[in-house]
Write a structure and sequence with these properties.
Blueprint lengths: L1 H28 L9 E11 L4 E10 L15 E5 L11 E9 L6 E10 L13 E2 L4 E2 L7
Antiparallel strand pairs: 1-2, 2-3, 4-5, 6-7
Length: 147
């Protein structure tokens, strides 16, 4: 009986030691949330919608830690598609610098920023001056003359 008690003690001590080592390894290799950036930008580029005569650029942003911003974000989402207003005059092969900033509530202090270059593979000349379609059903634009 004494022998079984010592075996049990050794098992308990070994389990505690193993748990302590795993905890120490986890603590030493953990990623401090305070050191993470607010966002990770994934992909991005120019989008051409010739049907509605629209050109814009955009990117996908992943939220890595809570953002103290004024714009309401969905609590259950960590991925957001962000797009610019419409642009024109885009030339193929030319880099366009995009500045991304997160500012505080008062819009006086920059909390996080990043800059990226986006390059279009085609000129925006492929996009007509007037939309080819109108309305939610993509009906032909009555302002355009057939032919």
């Amino acid at each position: 009986m004494v022998r079984e008690d010592r075996t049990f003690e050794k098992l308990v001590i070994g389990a505690i030691a193993l748990a302590g080592m795993l905890l120490a390894i986890g603590w030493l290799t953990r990623e401090d949330p305070a050191e993470k950036p607010y966002l990770r930008i994934a992909g991005g580029g120019f989008i051409y919608n010739y049907r509605v005569a629209d050109v814009f650029y955009g990117f996908t942003a992943y939220v890595l830690k809570p953002l103290p911003v004024e714009t309401r974000l969905h609590a259950r989402s960590v991925k957001y598609g962000i797009r610019s207003p419409s642009v024109r005059g885009v030339k193929a092969g030319r880099p366009y610098r995009v500045s991304i900033r997160i500012v505080d509530y008062t819009r006086t202090q920059v909390i996080w920023s990043d800059e990226r270059d986006y390059v279009s593979q085609i000129d925006d000349m492929v996009v007509p001056d007037k939309p080819l379609t109108v309305g939610p059903g993509y009906h032909p634009n009555p302002d355009l003359v057939d032919g």
